[in-house]
Amino acid sequence: MADEPFQTIIEPFRIHSVEPMRLTTQAERVAALTAAGYNLFELRAEDVLIDLLTDSGTGAMSAEQWAGVQRGNEAYAGSPSFERFRDAVTGLFPFRHVLPTHQGRAAEKILFTVTGGPGRVIPNNTHFDTTRANIEFTGAQAVDLPIPEGLQPALRYPFKGNMDVAGLDRLLAERAGHVPLVMLTVTNNSGGGQPVSLANIRAVREVCDRYGKPLFLDACRFAENAWFIKTGEPGYADVPVAGIVRQMAALADGMTMSAKKDPLANIGGWLALNDDSMAGQCRNLEILTEGFPTYGGLAGRDLEAIAQGLSECIDDDYLRYRVRSIAYLGEALESAGVPVVVPFGGHAVFIDARALLAHLDPLQYPGQALACALYAEGGVRACEIGTVMFGLRPDGTEVPAAMDLVRLAIPRRTYTQSHLDYVIEAVTRVASRAARLPGLRIVSQPRQLRHFTARFAPLH
Ligand SMILES: Cc1ncc(COP(=O)(O)O)c(C=O)c1O
Questions:
Q1: What is the CA radius of gyration of the chain?
Q2: Atom 3 (ligand 1) nearest CA
Q3: For 396-428, what is each residue's pLDDT tens digit?
Q4: For 79, which of 55, 75, 88, 168 could close a Cys bridge (C-beta 3.0–4.6 Å)?
């Protein structure tokens, strides 16, 4: 007899230890925001009630991961913790070389130091901020090639994270000699956490083959991506998530990875690839900046936590709950009339701040203004993904980003449904007075990755 499915999709874990949160008053939050120069990265985490700044490194580890931490072997070279880590990685991504790094951007830094440089061009469905910055830092150009549907927040379209394959073909036809590799980000974080279909990965691979270019995955959210393939792409419903991940990996020549996302670890990452000569160059750079290649900037205990996390994040019950909890938040905001990116992605709900704060010009930073208002209202910290993050070009000029979004990223296994209910109430309250929210101007900013340290002041 088949089990009768329940309507309620519960958190598939019990709470094992708790971390108290501090409730603040609105006056305290406004003071903290002013002191932070309206930059939410400058806030003290203890002044934040519900922290949706990122899903990166903020998840709760399982009892088995903590047990792994105890088993960590801290040998400088040849640690068995590295072997467990490498076996867990290659069990899903069977690349010949696996180089652990302290986080994803360290893998990017190594990869693009080897492959980037002035005159080079690196296409991606959408580069994440650190990927773009690491490419541009070498003097190379980072090109985004999302499908046009991926740039329309209100359009319901499956696999909106896909790459524009014809656009890639055109780019390679014109400039193949300048392109060292092609990247695909799964899921497409900056494009709304939207998944990429296996059909699209296969089509990108086919174009790469025609021009003799390697394909690298930026695979931070590979498990969520695989779940969307399983549940939304015809032909995969009966394929286990691990099998789908292996099919994704088989279409690529390498990957960069942040273990702080789907692998459920608080720190870590890796660079994996097949090419022996490129791997040799990367390994030398790794020793220079990260450490010996069997620890790569991590403690043995971190490698254990990642290895265990990799087996937990591909579990069907976990992924069903994960994707459902994001949709729960998204659906509630949508029915309250808040413009959100649809369909809902795997790790976050994205509010269309350009639509909600339509009275503001993109260069008055509607996303940043909305994120600040949300913190002042309810102590909820979100992240602008828009003109503040992407609007400053390497030559110092400023242009509106393709979209001005506010990302409510949900840490893994950390918040419960009542926390999300509180977030829904806070966002709805802010949305009801969105037309009166003031824009912001930049008071000071660095030349790169400005969103982390820029300071702002309200436009009155
Ligand atoms: C798609 C994507 N790539 C790369 C990174 C960089 O990873 P890390 O923060 O571990 O350096 C992130 C982090 O948010 C990301 O979302």
A1: 21
A2: 128
A3: 999 999 899 999 999 999 999 999 999 999 999
A4: 75
